[in-house]
Amino acid sequence: MEMPIPSARLYLKPEHDRPVRRHHPWIFSGALGRLEGPVEDGGLVEVFAFEGEWLARGYLNRRSQILVRLLTWDPHETIDASFWRQRLERAARARQALRLEEHTTAYRLVFAESDGLPGLIVDRYNDFLILQSLTLGIERWKPLLARLLQELFQPRGIYERSDVEVREKEGLPPRCGLLAGEAPPERLIISEHGLRFYVDLLRGHKTGFYLDQRENRHRAAAYLHGAEEVLNAFSYTGAFAVYALAAGARRVVNVDTSGEALQLALENVRLNGFDPGRVENVEGDAFQVLRRFVASGRRFDAVILDPPKFAYAQAHLNRAARGYKDINLQAMRLIRPGGLLITFSCSGLVSPELFQKIVFAAAEDAGREVQILEKLSQGPDHPIRLSFPESEYLKGLICRVW
User: Fold this and answer.
1) The PUA domain covers which part of the protein (predicted)?
2) Which of 13, 297, 303, 368 makes an SS bond possible with 231, Cβ 3.0 to 4.6 Å?
């Protein structure tokens, strides 16, 4: 699949060129001055400053608030099959340099804008690749990308999991299905730091597993040796619970709204040779369950909070902040003096600084003294692009609560 050099020219409004010059990969609709020449949504455009200076090249979608996603700032770099191949190869070399396969059989191979491939996610699970196409521009190039991934990495199969809400903003329906090779089994086993986990690639959250938390699970486990009882809220399939048991915690309580996920959490406990009797599963809303635990006087040596994204848009930020404060407040009320709070936010709109302030406000209301022992972020296979602060979405704190 080859696309012609774009003839459409997009001119920015006056004084709207600075983010582009600083290599931020998004141009919002409010920056549009005028658009000249025919171009379909998903097609390529040349981007110019108001005065006429060429700035960058990217793909357009008038149906999205993010009008253009930029691909190159090099006027001589053509967006063709060679471009996509080189970007995929660069992402692969970066992962090879991390020597991830010494510790895991599952990791992120392509992280969208951070790898210069806006709208494209590719995760490796053993011999299978799971692809997410998040934008109309990537959707148009998807057949070529699938072919290149097959040629470069020779997986047993490439399966698409583009069943994410963000596609609605691009005017795209959800889509799942086989792109190349053979379909993955309903469930496979991956390894991570010597532990093993069942993963549902066809229906599980995200692409099947929270790959971005791999190093944080490992770091958290270092603090859980000898803990009598650990509360793992928003537990999903219990990865933090397995790490806690492996570290020597005596009991773990998993809390999740999904009974199916909790059942898989027990299977993961058995898979790693631990007694499932050491795990209590509680199906329900974590906010309500933690309140019940507080009211009943229950206490824990450690509480892990790994909630889903609370803020999907700027308009949700205040409500999200209240949610994060509330759940951390309830957690602090459950922790024995000297115990641990291991807390996360995966909302990109909540900065690390704001998240720390929210946890501090929760500590004030709980009347607890709190020390930060470690600050956590997403794994190195989810790199943060300096010109794109939005790529730093996951932040966490390991805290001592007195």
Assistant:
1) 8-93
2) 303
Is 399 labeled as catalytic in the residue annotation? no
Q: What topology does CATH give the domain 9-72?
A: 2.30.130
Closest CA to 268 of 213, 209, 349, 227: 209
pTM recorded for the entire structure: 0.95
Distance (Å, whole) CA 78 – CA 86: 12
Q: In the CATH scheme, what architecture does the domain 81-181 have?
A: 2-Layer Sandwich (3.30)
Domain boundary assignment for the chain = 9-72, 81-181, 210-401
**pLDDT tens for residues 95-140?**
999 999 999 999 999 999 999 999 999 999 999 999 999 999 999 9
- Model confidence pLDDT, tens digit, residues 295-340: 999 999 999 999 988 877 787 788 889 999 999 999 999 999 999 9
Helix axes 214-221, 239-247, angle to 10 degrees: 30
